[in-house]
Amino acid sequence: MTDLSLGGRTRVDRDRLLRLLQDYGVHLGVAVLLLVNIAITPHFLSAENFRTQAVQVAPVLIVALGMALAIGSEGVDLSVGSVMALSTSLLSLYLGYGMWIALLVAVLGGAAVGVANGALIAFIGVQPIVATLALMVAGRGLAQVLLPQLKDVHDPTMASLGSGDLLGVPYLVLIAVALALLVAFVVRRTTFGRQLLAIGDSRPAARLAGLPVRRVLILVYVCSGALAAVAGVLATARLTASDPTSLGNLMELSAITAVVVGGTPLSGGRVRVGGTVAGAVLIKLLTATLIKHDLPPSWTQIAQAVVIILAVYAARERGKR
Predict the structure, then answer these.
(1) Membrane-crossing residues (predicted)?
(2) Domain tally, the chain
C-alpha cells in the first residue's frame, strides 16, 4: 500500500511539474536566455541594446496577437507576412495624400485581406490553412505589382513614429503594449472573445448554441489582417523604406511560433495573450543571441523549428491528460 501511495504521489508531482512547464515554460525560457546573454554576450545589459531588442519584438508581437485570435478559433493565418508587404506598398503609394490617409488605406488593405480569408473559411468552407495560403501568395504578388521595388519613405512624421519615444520608451513598443492589452481585454471581457473561444472549442456546438459563427470568424481574420497591416506600417516607419519583396518574409513562422510556445493550443478554444507576448520575446531574443554570436541565419530558422516541435509536443501531452 505504501509503495502504491508513493507511486501515486510521484505521478501527481510529475504531472504537476509537467503542467507548470507547459504553462510557464516560455517564461522560463526567456529567463534562461536572459541569463545566458548576461553571462556571455558583451554589452547585453546596455540601455541601447534593450531598446533595440524591444523595437524588434514589437512588429512580431503585433502580428502574433492576430495569429493568436486565428489559432484560438481553431484556424491559422498564413497571409500575415504578405499583408505586411501589401500595407507597406499602400502606405508608400498614398503617403502623398497625407500620413493619416496613407495609414488608413494601409490598415484597410489588411482588413480587406482578412475579409477575403474569413469569407472563404466561413461561407465557402475552405480550410483556414488553404484559404490563407492562397491569400499569402496573392497578397505578396499584389504588393509587388503596386510597388515593384524598394522605395525610400521621406516623411518626418513617419520617421518620428519609427524612431521617436515617450519618456524613453519607443513609440513602437508603446503601440505594441497597448494592442496586447486591448486584445487581452477583448478575449477575456467581451462577448466576441467568449464566442471566439466557444467556436474554437467546438464549432458544431457553437452553431447549435446559436452563436454567429460566420460573423465571428470573419471578424477574427479582419482583426488578424488589420494587426498585420499595423505591424507593416510600423516596420516601414522604423526602416524608413517600403520593401514589399522582403518585408514580412517568414513572419507567419515567427508569429505561429510565438503563439504556440506561449501556450495557445493549435486545437483552438484558448488564447493566452500573456504567453504570446513572452513567446514573441523568446523568439526575437533567441534570434538576436544567435546573430550576436556569428551563427548563420539558417540556424535561427532551425532553432525556431525545434521550439515549435517542443511546444506542440507539450500541448499534445497536455491534451492526453
Answers:
(1) 24-45, 57-73, 93-113, 120-147, 167-187, 216-235, 297-315
(2) 1
